[in-house]
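Researcher: Hi, I'm a grad student and pretty new to this. My advisor asked me to get structures for two proteins we've been looking at. I'm not sure of the right format, so I'll just paste the first sequence and hope you can take it from there.
Model: That works fine. Here's the first sequence with its structure tokens right after it:
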Amino acid sequence: MPANPDAEKNNPCLREQDLVHKCLNKNNYDNGLCELYFSNYKNCKDFWYRVQRERRAKGLYPYLPDLADRARIKQEYMSTKPGGA
């Protein structure tokens, strides 16, 4: 069980964050060897920041969607972006 049971609810990029930490631990904290993980984490944070900003502008609450809705939101984004599925 994680130290913070609400971590996943409050951080939609928790998995990406954990992968960064695992990579750093595995590679003796050499950031250069973990650039792909850092990039993926940054893209995740940017995506969910945009989602929150759009929801706030539309008056939708909570600004960060519930866990159950996140997969659907990501799928909708992937299907509408150029080159998406």
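Researcher: Oh nice, that was easy. Here's the second one.
Model: And its structure:
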Amino acid sequence: MLLRNKTSTNVFFCVDKISKNISSGLHSNANNGKNSGIVAKDSGLLANLNMHDGGLGITNFFSGKKLLITGATGFLAKVLVEKILRTMPEVDKMFLLIKAKDEEAAMERLMNEIVNTELFKCLREKHGTFFEKFILSKLVPVGGNMSETNIGIEEDVANRIAREVDIIINSAATTTFDERIDIALDINTRGAAQIVNFAKKCEKLKLYVHVSTAYVSRQSKGEIIEESFGKGHYVASNADTFEAQHKHIHGLDIEAELKLASEMKESFGKDEKDQQLKDFGMRRSQKYGWPNTYSYTKAMGEMVVEDTKGEMPVIILRPSVITSTLEEPFSGWIEGNRMMDPFFLWYGKGKLSGFYSSPNTVADMVPADIVVNSTLAAIAKHGRGNSNSSDDDHVYQITSSVAHPLISRDLLDLAYQHFRLSPCFDRKGNPIQISAFKFFASIDDMLSYMQNTNGDEEISPRQELIRRKALEHFKYLADLYQPYTFYNGRFDSTNVEELMKCLSKEETNST
């Protein structure tokens, strides 16, 4: 069933039954005659990837390596760091880029926001009183800023990393759909340019790993293939021949977008700046065919990487919606209200009985530990410099919609069953009763239903104001999420499937 993390003030969902329903087909064996996505549950990539020599030789590859990981306090990076420390303790060092004013502040964030979280409890139990000593021997917090030269790292530290680092993993991102355009560009686009420029200075660099999202594609229906920007359907067919290389989409000039956002930031007054920059970002995104500022700036980040990488070895990872851990280090760990979580919470509390969405949409979700395991396998394959890569097999879509599509109506039925068996409670301690989830074909239908929920019940002016604001909020969310609640695209994951074929028998069967 769906799980709730009772140790947090927030309520998190979507692990146990949902993830297992996804994984039962998503990771089914490639021999079933379908594009079966990632790998079978017994594959070890799904569960505990205790990597052995042979095959990709993942454990051997990471032994003695030094890594630089950006976005270190983010959800996915934490799962990645924990996995490496737990299963590959022979790794030499991990430099973790953390936004902080100085080394002391970076160390404080490392301990409070990464090491001391529940995620590390298995490592803490394993090492006992030596846990902190082990952690500090492996993890090096580095204060920095993605949008600055040398990613904001002090010169002496930057020089050390440039001399020593073998692998760079850029997982820094702002994932808010309607983020201020200047903030989103700084992290998702300009940040990508800065980290690539820094990577080019690294003397021993074997691989640069760019974590993107499956939703960088402007395509919203049909099969979405694993293909880099500048190739195939990503290039506008009517682009003029004189356009610069970075104009992948007709009329889109990344440098011009960065400059325009900077100018707009200065033109707005203090009181109106936040909302104006959010609205401006959404308008620019939709002008070029992306649904929101997040996917637009992440797409441009990929374009920057592809355009500026030169001969540097690069892989692009595109996970879909990353959910809580399926099995590693334990089932059900998640942090923050992610993507669909607030909707489940509102549904369970009786505040949202339905939404503007299609019952036939595929909910493309992948547990965090599967994304991490796929990442480690891809790094081991490409990090040796002899993987015989073609132009596009460095792009990996870690997704589920082709392999084992989870239909929205089935997902919401699981949620309904869960809250019937394990209800939320109101302030008086009474279980909250919910009805089956309703799918509305228009925003007006949804708002009309919500407006009439209380019937003829008399409410105070204050309650009426609260209800009116709630309706406005749900209308805004319906507009914001509509590209996904009616999404008809399916993400090809052939390259991930081929990656799994490279695993040895030990790597495949290890649990």
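Researcher: Is there anything I should tell my advisor about the second?
Model: You could mention this: The chain has 18 helices and 13 strands.
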